[in-house]
Amino acid sequence: VITGTTRLYGIIGDPVHAVRSPALFNAAFARLGLDAVFLPLHAAAEELERAWRGLTALRNLDGLVVTMPHKAAVVPLLDALGPTARLTGTVNTARRLPDGRWEGDMFDGEGFVAGLRANGHDPRGMRVLQVGCGSAGRAIAFAVARAGVASLDLADAAPGRAAELAGAVARAFPGVRARAGAPLPDGHGLVVNATPMGLAPGDPPPLDPARLRAGQVVADVIPNPEVTSLIAAARASGCATVTGRAMHEGQARLAAAFLGIAGWEG
Amino acid sequence: VITGTTRLYGIIGDPVHAVRSPALFNAAFARLGLDAVFLPLHAAAEELERAWRGLTALRNLDGLVVTMPHKAAVVPLLDALGPTARLTGTVNTARRLPDGRWEGDMFDGEGFVAGLRANGHDPRGMRVLQVGCGSAGRAIAFAVARAGVASLDLADAAPGRAAELAGAVARAFPGVRARAGAPLPDGHGLVVNATPMGLAPGDPPPLDPARLRAGQVVADVIPNPEVTSLIAAARASGCATVTGRAMHEGQARLAAAFLGIAGWEG
After folding, report:
1. Which residues of B touch A65 (CB under 8 A)?
2. Which helix (H) or strand (E) holds A63?
3. Please, what is the Cα angle at B201 between B199 and B205, to 5 degrees?
4. pTM
């Protein structure tokens, strides 16, 4: 029951109709007996700063999760940044500090790796193909590199974006062979979709599903629909799959810890 | 259940811990099967503009109820004002118009009169003493004048405030004898507390309860605690009483209609 004492949290993005965080967090709040509510907050890119300044002025709002397309744009609006936010230049969670300032950090990548591990796939030593080098892809690339993959091949439809990210990952993690290339899954143990392809019905696949082979692990960042056309094709080819739901639950658990929500078991 | 498609409403004020609107509106949303949620929004006076600009930038937020101390301060932040907002210079409800602009109007006074009538007391022809001429008092004074009271005696601890309001009411409603004076209930059929006295435990009473007499109607604007020390003293003296809860339910019904929430039966 929401009353005048209820604390507020939310996820800010555009669009927000498919976000799963409100269901996850509100179920956890109920389970934990917390007087708190988690909301969808729909702000267009051109109104992000105005919305952010206003939301963070509310004294009963304690935390914000940030989703597309705001993960990079929100960085200059924060008073303090955690280590992964500084590394990736993106933020997916922000909290009010005791002195009233707002601190952000990025858990998309670590959430993705946690989702892999929760499904029995440790990325250590794997050869990885990742398609998509936007904000989510950036976070995932650094996180799988930190997790000790053998190599990381990056592909992106935008010219230069994969090469830029490969260079940044190689500088931060010299032990990982990070390169830009084509979205060809041949010979990779782990294939990752970090593009938005699959969110909308009829989206083209992010890579050619006919090239997938049994024994590969195929992971998608899209939580809703949980079974994207890529995940369906991978299953039909005998691949192991990890859906965006696993990544999302991993992210939510890490975001909850950052937000000081004790006892979470997303 | 809150999901990405849930529409947002809220009450903005300082403090908000005792507001009853979230309980009233969320119960109505559940009864009506609406995918909407009503929130407490805690904004200090010095951050009202920043909070307001940010909240009204959210595309899934459709309406705001305004409470102390923002009812006058919010007026210049609105794009359009309804007739009672223009008359009183205060706003208690604002809605997003189809073109994206925000329109505000004031229903505190009409809600108070509705609460009186719901309890069987029509103010028409009554001699009224009202203590408190702030934003709520201003709205109530105009509304009871519009409802056709015979006379309206206004008292306020702030020098000149009662006289200013009495003059404004007399100009708008020449048939009502509106005057400033002392908070003495003697000879009045209806006695109204429109001060915040009674919100906090140990507040002094807004008028001398020993002067109340059986047969008078005593109404209080404070919804929580519902039985203020004034209401308790009035009952002990044999007065009829109308609590802030009745006013608040009347306000909520009128605010809901302004917000386009069909089927409300607060």
Report:
1. none
2. strand A61-66
3. 70
4. 0.89
